[in-house]
Amino acid sequence: MNRTNKNLAYPQFGVKLNEDIKRYGKTKDINDGFALRDKSMLPTLTGPQRSAVAKAVLDHEQYMNYRGVKIESRVSIPICSIKCIRMVRKELHLLYKDLYKIQRLKASVFERVMKAQERVTWTHFRIKTRSPASEFNRKALRPYKR
Question: pLDDT tens digits, residue range 41-72?
Fold first, then answer.
């Protein structure tokens, strides 16, 4: 059974590791970042080998799971006045500009996604704290009671 690396699915890895990936692909979902991170899939790999396999085999979403990063970002927008609408429009416009810049960066997909998530989270925080309907402002505007 003499195979060369050119005939393998992942030629950057050896024959044994390709066989393990193929075997796990039949029994489990090979694109499971959690299983690869938790060592329930391919348990004999070392840390650098595991990282190399994750980069080669997993798609972007599962690679984020492998790295232990959340893959969703949300913005809650309270709309309660015209002033609030203007503020939200400005914040979302700034978010649009920042996401466009992040998209054009010469960085890895992982780094760009992390920066975009950070910017979306920051926009969410700014909108929530600057909104008159937010919990922060309600506490500040509450009249003092003795």
Answer: 777 778 888 888 877 777 777 777 777 777 77
CA–CA dist 57, 111 (Å, integer): 18
Q: Which two tokens stand for residue 106?
A: 């010469």
Q: What are phi and psi of 12, to 5 degrees?
A: -75, -15
Contact 78, 131 (CB under 8 A): yes
Say which residues have a Cβ less than 8 Å from residue 63's Cβ, sequence separation at least 6. 33, 54, 55, 110
In tens, the pLDDT along 91-144 reads 999 999 999 999 999 998 888 988 998 899 888 888 888 877 665 555 554 554
pTM above 0.90, yes or no: no
- Cβ-Cβ contacts under 8 Å for 134 (sequence gap 6 or more): 78, 128
Question: For residue 21, how many other CB atoms are within 10 A of its CB?
Answer: 19
